[in-house]
Amino acid sequence: MAQRQGAIKLAKLRELMETIQVGGIKGIGVEALIVNSADAHQSEYLRERDKRVRFISGFTGSYGTAIITLNKALLWTDGRYYVQALAEFDPPEAWTLMREGSLDTPTRAAWLVANLPPKSTVGADANLMSYTEWAVLHTSLTAAGHSLMPLEENVIDKVWGNEQPDPTANTVLPHIMKFSGRSAGKKVSDCKDDMSKNNVKALVVTALDEVAYLLNLRGSDIPYNPVFFAYAVLTLDDLHLFIDKQRLSEKAQQQLIDEEVNVVYHSYEDIHLFLKQIANSCTSNEKIWISNSSSYALHADCGEVKKHASITPISIMKAIKNSVEIEGMKAAHVRDAVALVKYFAWLEHEITVKKEIVTEVTGATRLEKFRQEQEHFAGLSFPTISSVGPHGAIIHYLPTSKTDVPITDKELYLCDSGAQYKDGTTDVTRTFHFGNPTRFERECFTRVYKGQCRLASAIFPLMIQGNYLDTLVRENLWSVGLNYLHGTGHGVGSYLNVHEGPIGISWRPYPDDPGLQPGMFLSNEPGYYEDEKFGIRLENIEVVVKANTPYNYKNRGFLTFQTVTLVPVQTKLLDLSLLTDNEIEHLNNYHARCLNTLKPLLQGSENAQALEWLERETRPISK
Predict the structure, then answer these.
(1) 454: left (phi over 0), alpha (psi -120 to 50) or beta
(2) Spatial distance between the Cα atoms of 176 and 186, rounded to a whole number of angstroms
(3) Is residue 53 within a helix (H) or strand (E), and if so which, with residue range?
(4) What is the DSSP string of 460-484?
(5) 223 near 199, Cβ under 8 Å?
(6) Measured at the alpha carbon of residue 373, what is the angle toward residues 370 and 379, in degrees to the nearest 5?
(7) Stretch 467-487: mean pLDDT
(8) Are 279 and 205 in contact (CB under 8 A)?
(9) Per-residue model confidence as pLDDT tens digits over 37-60
(10) Which tens digits make up the pLDDT trace of 130-154?
(11) Could you tell me which of 323, 33, 67 has the C-alpha nearest to residue 154?
């Protein structure tokens, strides 16, 4: 029945594509439709209403772009989701997986140019595509004689109809100085200084985490992300906030006053008209500051006005945590480690001693309960990836009642999870085997650990982009012909999005990466995945700190990482013959930190199981 529904959706969509209004002309239609995994703020994680790719294709991953023509349906996604997408397509025979990152996979623009009839029209919702992506597509299509046109209404929404979920509009709460460490007024003032330097009349803030960070407010409009739907436009005189004022709690409204932010409220939908008015009032020398990651629709609202199309100052300000945020992130990871140690100790005991059945789902539920016991807990930072054996090879696997299997001592168990605490956001992955791993599993695990250790101990120049560090992590896998198809690291927010730009460590460049600086937090998460057999990933969160070096070339300054995640790595899975003395010393020192930090927090009879497990798992190793 489900597959038949998928086919019906595609048929109805194609009917609309042939008659949809384009450029004010009814009935002109489009030969191809682009559907992005995005909302109007280019968010990674989406509320139910905005999951249009899932609606039309069945694919539930967080990253993917669909292209539908009158006779084909294709989905581009990266290595995290290849296996998952093939399993979820609805109907499977109607969809073609385009493996982004593979050498033989064309870009979306290249495929369209090669496959469209002459002088075709490609349609897309300009609110759901960034200016950068639109510009690349427009240039390629125009050069080939085609046209890319913004649609006046979203065609997927028309197919979805009354069954499309309603918008979320939850209460917005204050993020107090105890956790933020810096007033909203000071952040606004610093932004205005940057605006003056660049002769900017207005700064347009569209990313939801940037709006939340700038104003020291938090919400719950998107699951796992403490953000709310709003736009902000900052002028040299006022801050214009596009949201129903009644959505802000009284304490949130009062905090804005107390932190000296002069807010002018507007309806959320008025952002387009307001930008057009601002643009019309600009002199020939004045500019509007709007990031190229903002939607093409908002860029179009700015008309012919000069644009300062750089990332916003908020983006960098948010990435470089202040002293209060740094200490909060560290404290959150300590409490999170307590919860994880309790979980892994409990899990191992249930499986190997009590011989009880614990499944992927019930295990994830128990882990969440351990986290709920911790101070300042506000929720999970993403759905827990609790995966056994072959499921571990599905990089962003989400266990459900249909896929749920027991966690046993016969297969590898990969658990990637995180939490939102009011003082920080966590994200940690550990892989365990509660029985007897194979030689190959141990070798793969060891090489993944070696990569993680290499990055954690790296010393690198101030302001170098994270992209340059990616090879360090992969070297020990590459040397034997292994690899993984996801990035090595992402930025992490402070009680904000678990994936935070503009920084990252990946084989793909991050074009807006301003360079690594002290106070930035990134993940360190190499892995290896054997399709239909197992998955291995180790993930720690690292903070960038100054390095002590005997020399300082050109007074550049050098940096290194300090690991803030404090959860033991299973030494049973290591092949010690593959480790250097330095790598063994690094792990022993790390485990000593884990034990010394967590032991005082695991006292009392109720924690005896967890403490015994912690002491055993942190014993020093040697060849």
Answers:
(1) alpha
(2) 14
(3) helix 52-57
(4) EETT--GGGGHHHHHHHHHTTT---
(5) no
(6) 80
(7) 97
(8) no
(9) 999 999 999 999 999 999 999 999
(10) 999 999 999 999 999 999 999 989 9
(11) 33
How many Cα atoms within 13 Å fall on the side-chain side of residue 567? 29
Centroid of chain to Cα 126:
22
3-state secondary structure of 149: strand
In degrees and rounded to multiples of 5, residue 206 shows phi and psi of -115, -30
DSSP string computed for 197-228: HTTEEEEEE--HHHHHHHHTEE--SBTTB---
Structure-derived torsion over alpha carbons of residues 232, 234, 239, 243, reported in degrees to the nearest 10: -10
CB distance 313 to 196 below 8 Å: no
Name, in order, each residue with C-beta under 8 angstroms of 98's C-beta and a sequence gap of 6 or more.
Answer: 74, 75, 76, 77, 105, 106, 108, 111
Q: Which two tokens stand for residue 265?
A: 């409220």
Here the tokens at position 346 are 């409990």
Phi, psi at 617, each rounded to 5°: -75, -15
In this structure, what DSSP letter does residue 168 have? P
b/e 226-260 (16+ beta carbons within 10 angstroms → b) = bbbbbbbbbeeeebbbbbeeebbeeebbebbeebe
What's the whole-number average pLDDT of the chain?
Answer: 96
| pLDDT score, position 2 | 44
How long is the chain? 623
Amino acid code (one letter) for 248? L
Distance CA 522, CA 470 (A): 13
pTM of the model: 0.95
3-state secondary structure string across 273-308: HHHHHHHHHCCCCCEEECCCCCEHHHHHHCCCCEEE
The secondary structure element, H or E, covering residue 378 is strand 377-380
